[in-house]
Amino acid sequence: MSDNEYRVAVVGATGAVGEQMIKYLEQRNFPVKELRPLASKRSTGKTVMFQGREVKVQETTPDAFEGIDIALFSAGGSVSKAIAKEAVARGALVIDNSNAFRMDPEVPLVVPEVNPEAIAQNKGIIANPNCSTIQMVVALKPLYDQFGIERIIVSTYQAVSGAGMNASKELDAQTQAFISGDQVPTQILPVGSLDNHYQLAFNVIPQVDVGQENGFTLEEMKMVRETKKIFNDDQIGVTATCVRVPVQRGHSESVYVELKQDYQLEEVKDLLAKQPGVIVQDDIEQQIYPMPLETADRPEVFIGRIRRDLTHDRGLNLWVVSDNLLKGAATNAIQIAEAYIASKR
Amino acid sequence: MSDNEYRVAVVGATGAVGEQMIKYLEQRNFPVKELRPLASKRSTGKTVMFQGREVKVQETTPDAFEGIDIALFSAGGSVSKAIAKEAVARGALVIDNSNAFRMDPEVPLVVPEVNPEAIAQNKGIIANPNCSTIQMVVALKPLYDQFGIERIIVSTYQAVSGAGMNASKELDAQTQAFISGDQVPTQILPVGSLDNHYQLAFNVIPQVDVGQENGFTLEEMKMVRETKKIFNDDQIGVTATCVRVPVQRGHSESVYVELKQDYQLEEVKDLLAKQPGVIVQDDIEQQIYPMPLETADRPEVFIGRIRRDLTHDRGLNLWVVSDNLLKGAATNAIQIAEAYIASKR
């Protein structure tokens, strides 16, 4: 990476997040010398549009990373585990959107607004946190700095696109079939790899990712562990209930946070409004609050319903919404790349 | 009410809850001598089916309550305020499903599984609690008795039928229009009487009922105040975030409860499983948990995702689902009537 333009590979280029990564690289005017879209063998031959040109999708093989400076991975944990280190061995910086390396002590887990300093510790791989974690820690960062955080209790309202493009299509197909009175297809949701599949259309499913022995789901435990790692603070208490709702794009979160110090509500609102990457939409009497339909396709984290908790003096309630494919995935990954480049200058 | 059969009026007989009340009176074999369906002038001339016969809907006037023993009101707060006392004056027991009298110190607020003893204090009116409150207190009752409750933090996932039949129809129309690429109708949701209306299809709206000066919505404050009144305990802390989701029937709730004493998880599960009116569906590894689509049209409260909180020793997380039109409204009202009758024998 000696000059100011970069050869960028996107692994999982035809997936829900990969698509957004390519779109976002273009929108942000990321200094791309060459875009190399990679995917499974099945997708080779397809093309993606980038800067007005069609670019052919290639198969994700070790050699496909020859000459690559930055490899953005978003093809699931098993692909990342199998091949990310091959990319690193060929000189690429890997920014990985899967769960493969997030809790690896050798791998920094980065949200640029929260812990950009962790980027410097990378040994070739930087992990992008889980979508539901990213938007929450962006919202909580200024409160953490100002007051300290004792604990967090979060309930999520997660969009189906977090489960991938086929899950998105299944919600559409379910909705159409349900309205028409046809047999509702249930082959993917809530978790493709598990045995039982349920209708999400006109329903909510209190399961995101696989269940664990402790009664929580993997998604819930990601929020717990990743939040501690990103804030570099094992003392933060986090408990989560993760729920899939029939929304295509945009995760919403009902967040209860117990601060370490007393606070004034106006100070909290000011801090949130000043936080880079955050937009406050908060006036219930005027019916102003964020909703996933309005925040889709926007890169910021939106916060509303900011109010003093009724059960604890240092408790605070927030409603946090963000596009899970953008700040929750593609945007954050590319912001990591930008912060990395800036740190090398 | 001298014999064992009763003349029953249903006010709001053509509404979402009124319809369920009539259906449920029939299903439960409630001892109905005469069913008198009442509604606004606009609905007179319509008929409802009861025990295989068509019964004409009459206008809700004071004189319509002549001879009535039990009047089930579910036509909104303004109708209840205007006319419930006329029914009482004519000798009827009023069971009111609106918000009109719930916090009136003269009016008991009753969930038969929780505080049946309050029925005896009535002076002609018994209030049925808000749908989101009912299912939560049924779930928490055995825990309250066994351990005491310090505080509750609840986030809801509420079905559109809670906003009435026209709101239900609007969600269907929105969904159909959105899928077809047509203009999405937004005239009712989230709150018909307010200025701003939003799409709920493929969205979530963090507003149920009108906003208040303290930043909470009326729905949220109902959960706070009613829970304290039903448990007859002003010391219980309650904070709520109430959210409308694109579901037709069945409210879901992510409930964090902080008990007053240490607990064993198995004991909690046993207590919940033994509680009348509760069905436990709890095994995340087997993908067993309640969902609104599966619990619609069933009168019980369903509980799953039962797990020890990760941030507090006495904290517990529950996922509580129930049909908002049944246990959340019609079923509870008729159970109050049954308990009242039993208490008079």
UniProtKB/TrEMBL annotation, chains A, B:
Q: Where along the chain is NADP(+) bound?
A: 14-17, 42-43, 161-162, 324
For this UniProt record, the keywords arranged alphabetically read as follows: Amino-acid biosynthesis, Diaminopimelate biosynthesis, Lysine biosynthesis, Methionine biosynthesis, NADP, Oxidoreductase, Threonine biosynthesis
Query: What's this protein's name?
Result: Aspartate-semialdehyde dehydrogenase
Describe the function of this protein.
Catalyzes the NADPH-dependent formation of L-aspartate-semialdehyde (L-ASA) by the reductive dephosphorylation of L-aspartyl-4-phosphate.
- Judging by the UniProt lineage, the source's domain of life is Bacteria
Quote the InterPro entries the UniProt record gives. Asp_semialdehyde_DH, Asp_semialdehyde_DH_beta, NAD(P)-bd_dom_sf, Semialdehyde_DH_NAD-bd, Semialdhyde_DH_dimer_dom
Q: Identify the coding gene.
A: asd
Q: Where is the signal peptide?
A: none
